[in-house]
Amino acid sequence: MIAEAGLAALWLGAALCALQLVLVVLTLMASKQVRSDVVEGSSEKKRGSEQLGPTGLVGEALELSRAIRPVAVAQGVLTLAAFALLILLFVRVDLSVLLVAQNDHSEKPFLYRFAASWGNHEGSMLMWVAILSIAGAAVALLERRLNERTLIATLGGQSAIGLGFYAFLLFASNPFARLTPPAAEGQGLNPLLQDPGLAFHPPTLYLGYVGLSVAFSFAIGALVTRDVGPAFARAMRPWVLAAWIFLTIGITAGSYWAYYELGWGGWWFWDPVENASLMPWLAATALLHSVTVLATRDGLRAWTVMLGVVAFSMSMVGTFLVRSGILTSVHAFAVDPRRGSFLLALLALYIGGALALFALRIGTVREGSRFDALSREGSLVLNNLLLSVILGIVLVGTLYPLILEGATGEKLSVGPPYFNSAAGPLALILGAAMVAGPLMRWRREDVRPLLKKLAPAAALVIVMLVAVKMAAPTIGILPLLGLGLSAGICLGSIEPLIGRNLRRTPLFTWGMVVAHFGIGIALAGMACDSAFTAERLVAASVGQTVDVGPWRVKLASVTPGFGPNWTSMEGTLEASRSGATTILRPQARYYWAPPTETSESAILTAWNGQLYTVLGAQAGEGRWQLRLWWKPFVTFIWGGGVLVAFGGTLALIGRLRRERRSAKNREAFA
Amino acid sequence: MSAPVATARRPWLLWVPLIGFVLLATIFVIGLRKPDDPAISSKMIGETVPAFALPAAARDVQGLSSSDLADGTPHLVNIFASWCVPCAAEAPQLEMLAKNGVPIVGIAIRDRPDDVAGFLTRYGNPYRRIGSDTTSKVQIALGSSGVPETFVVDGKGVIRLQKIGPILPQDMADVQAALAAAR
To answer: What ipTM is given for this predicted complex?
Structure first.
């Protein structure tokens, strides 16, 4: 019954979604009617209508519009219920449901049964749609600042996206399909995915990914009503910020998960699926900065709307790339090429439709304010241009194998050398611009005072470059510049606080400082990791000692072990540095449902880096493959990521607080 | 500095994003039509086998060099390893081909003489010669990316067919047809 209830909830949600779209269209048509009536001269009617003031809607349009918010909320609740029911099926291991039988296993621990519900195509798409409709419901419930017509059009945009993805779920990816007769046992789950990281990483990433749909719908709403201005930007900013925070956390967590679970010691692989999450992040980061220009200075109107469309379009392109199996990837555990064409049709409809609407409408949006090239706005434009170019580089690199194979039939893969050498230098320039931007005034900045403000950070960069080059003469150019610049970013990013009363500094300024500081920290971690990692691959016999970096590691013993659904060989390593010894226990695991071998790395975290150890296969005559890495300051990468997300959170709280305060002030004056 | 100014003068600029997306979608359509095939086929098909000379892979067999292949008759060049499980699965098929008089030569990848000898005792020896490629150098030169793989090489030493993965009973017809065509 649970499966049927879930399916019913999903159908009801889809029906409400359709209703929402119809109501929005009717309201907008009716309100257009009223508007033209008003324009045609019955100004008495305007004065006589008491409802016109705050909402801009009258009569029939107002009646219709009253239903839209509750419908959006009910739709969110129903879809969330459907998702909860799917999770229930997985936790109870209901093997009469096809999806559960294929992806679950009764011997799996609770957390992984829970997480298995989204570790597959149908379940992850249901999570996608659930987040989409919850985002719509949240807008309907919480958004009070936006002009009512624009809000209604926004909810229309959200329901239009929803409708297509409901159809995709119900007609092409039904998660609740029954299996008769029921299976005797489930077919398990990819053991790589049996990790606490999976319980946490996809939901946050999806919240960010799909949360960006709100920015997309805002852009659609603004285009439909031609209402692009500071008020619109202020209303949109918290939603973009929230999605961006989740995306940042999701990418950071995903990077750490791949780092310790895949056992290669790498933290970013430029894998198509990673790129699919990076591209929306780049677009959202650009949007976050341009929306500030729009909110503060009423500039970059068309560009901001464009980025709103692009950010979520990148999410949809990412979903398509991952779900259609068009590109092979280490994440290719849940793909089905037949569904690709369905998703592609949705992509064409939404992205194509939005871009066509943009081309038709944006010309009628009034021009925003102008500004000098050397100004806060100018630096934010530079930030946007660089982020867009990096986005383009990642997009082309990700799709190049596909383009080449389509054109010539040749196969190749594009790897880190391309991405690092193409995007790396631009990212460094972006880092430098990030230091300068917050030190500039809005509208117009003079060269001299700016150089004066930049001097300390620039001096630190030079000192750092010289020091690093002297300490490590063989260091590569990108890591060298990265290390030098990271020091400058860390110093420069706190400079906006200097000379301010720290207690009176707005929370969102703190947020910016913390986020920029986090970028500096992460950059330092990346540069240290690529410059100073020490690696040893040895076939070690028990009792043998191996040196790696400052560590001396002894393979003390190898013993068999077992867990709830696996057996293992566990190595005991005694790692010592300057006297103190720590025990590490890396495992080579063998799962039996489905039969798969994985290596569980053991990581020792010190204040200045991580010792990363992996036990490989037996190499004959009592010797074991041992892979050891000493990675100085590698933790800074994720520490920086967390700081960036934390800075975003501070900014979000700061913005919401200020909004509330100014709303109160308005009420007090009224 | 502001976008609408630039676009008021050049209205076509507004359509650039849409055109970009149409291009993207076209790539996707082409990509979807050709489902991604993870097998990596050799660029050496139709080319002459690159020159190589490998030492014997076990005590009682002869080594293999590229000149052994250009002797006027088509050969099967089987890339295998004692540590490779699917290689054992194709042993009966290779045995049958050898019985039918097909000259089969082997290249043992990253292997040790004792292990190769053990493999031959366990699963039979259909090979006339077996070269030992301890560094995968010849394997890569042939454009092979895994074990087992089998190449049909004609009498002039030109590669005619590459079979990726084990030769299973259902693959026998293809292999034999390619051998006949190479004759």
So the answer is: 0.81
